[in-house]
Design a protein that fits this description.
This protein has about 150 residues and is of the alpha+beta class. The protein is built from three helices and six strands. The longest helix is centred in the middle third of the chain and has 20 residues.
Length: about 150
């Protein structure tokens, strides 16, 4: 991808971003497509060269953003409110190269106050690229007396 094409993606992201789930700047800039099949949240996007680290594969920070978004958006989808990432551990198994990838976030244990979650990034062939496990603080509901 040439510099002009990357700049156009950046400019389009700035022009169309909104501070909301699925439409915030990074989601637009990285081209995230968010869906909610079954009890999961899938964040799909195309790995492009402007997302590379110096070794020529997807930068781990971008993978971390996508993994985190798949879990956070699932909480919002289920509860209608944003959750808070308390901690996240990522394991990188193999490099993500140009082409489609998807992160699938799911609950491992859904609690009232704290939930355990995971997300797995796979390539177009279904090969596991990276995975994250995380602990999330769940949003308090309006009717919650502890609020």
């Amino acid at each position: 991808m040439d510099d002009q094409a990357a700049r156009e993606i950046f400019e389009r992201a700035i022009a169309t971003q909104e501070p909301a789930f699925g439409t915030f700047f990074l989601a637009k800039f990285l081209g995230f497509d968010v869906s909610y099949p079954d009890d999961t949240c899938v964040v799909g996007f195309q790995v492009r060269d402007y997302m590379f680290n110096p070794q020529g594969s997807l930068h781990g920070g971008i993978a971390a953003v996508a993994l985190d978004v798949s879990m956070g958006h699932l909480i919002h989808h289920v509860t209608g409110r944003p959750g808070i990432t308390l901690e996240m551990k990522i394991q990188y198994m193999r490099p993500a190269v140009p082409g489609p990838v998807r992160c699938t976030g799911r609950f491992l244990r859904r609690g009232r106050a704290i939930s355990a979650m995971e997300s797995r990034m796979t390539d177009a062939d279904g090969k596991l690229l990276s995975m994250a496990t995380s602990t999330w603080q769940m949003p308090r509901l309006e009717r919650d007396p502890a609020n």
